[in-house]
Amino acid sequence: MKSFDLGLYLVTDRDLSLGRPLEFIVEEAVKGGVTMVQLREKACSSLEFYQLGIRLKKLLKPYAVPLIINDRLDIALAVDADGLHIGQSDLPWEVARRLLGKDKILGLSVETMEQAEESNKLDIDYIGISPVFATPTKTDTFQPFGLEGVKAVSSIARHPNVAIGGINMNNAAQVMAQGANGIAVVSAISSAENPRLAAEALKNEVTG
Ligand SMILES: Cc1ncc(COP(=O)(O)OP(=O)(O)O)c(N)n1
Ligand SMILES: Cc1nc(C(=O)O)sc1CCOP(=O)(O)O
Ligand SMILES: [Mg+2]
Predict the structure, then answer these.
(1) Which cofactors must be present for this protein to function (predicted)?
(2) Reported ipTM exceeds the 0.95 cut
(3) Is position 138 annotated as part of the catalytic site?
(4) 31 carries an active-site annotation
């Protein structure tokens, strides 16, 4: 059976890692308490994406932390990742589910309350509440949900949810207090001077 913990979800971005290797950021983050890792590299050749995926899969295996691939079903299959994250403009979820199989984790971003309601009918494993706050890390987003929106989505969602966008030490506890099952972050860990300490501090906010 697939089991996963959305509590503290690291989404990678090498451009925001202050020149440090991706493996360093990911391993330090996991040592600090990250429970899921998503390989999200937008400016990457297929070969490089595949090679990064293989390396992260090997790195994460001893920690039993799932590796999720962003956008690219082919890469998720090729590296035998634990799952795939898709958005509303990516491959249809039915196609992803059919090709991934039932044992892999499939995450879907929801950008509106209507999409959150619709997601209850879908054979997916979790939803990303997208975005909670505006963030310079990703600017092609819908209007932010805000804390009230997280509360509203959490109250109707059948699937576990993870909140993403602009989350850091100053607001993580408030996001969790709305009923979110976890937080997903890029810069709060990848751009931290000490990614392990940053993950530990965020984990404390998540677990209370
Ligand atoms: C956990 C999580 N939630 C939301 C997203 C955003 O996905 P998407 O809308 O497909 O946008 P891109 O990340 O592909 O730019 C995510 N990646 N992870
Ligand atoms: C990858 C991603 N997806 C988002 C969404 O709203 O769907 S926001 C985002 C980037 C989040 O970065 P940071 O933690 O640095 O704000
Ligand atoms: Mg996407």
Answers:
(1) Mg(2+)
(2) yes
(3) yes
(4) no
| Residue recorded with tokens 């059919």 | 98
Q: Catalytic: which of 97, 104, 109, 191? A: 109
Question: C-alpha angle with apex 65: 128 to 25, nearest 5 degrees?
Answer: 85
Taking the CA of residue 1 as centre, how many other CA atoms within 13 Å lie in the half-sphere pointing to its CB?
2
User: What is the architecture of the domain spanning 8-207?
Assistant: Alpha-Beta Barrel (3.20)
Does residue 119 have a known ligand-binding role?
no
Confirm whether pTM is higher than 0.90: yes
**Contact 132/168 with Cβ under 8 angstroms?**
no
Q: What does the alpha-carbon distance between residue 114 and residue 20 come to, in Å, rounded to a whole number?
A: 40
161 touches ligand 1 (CB under 6 Å): no
Domain boundaries, the chain: 8-207
User: Tell me: the pLDDT tens digits for 101-127?
Assistant: 999 999 999 999 999 999 999 999 999
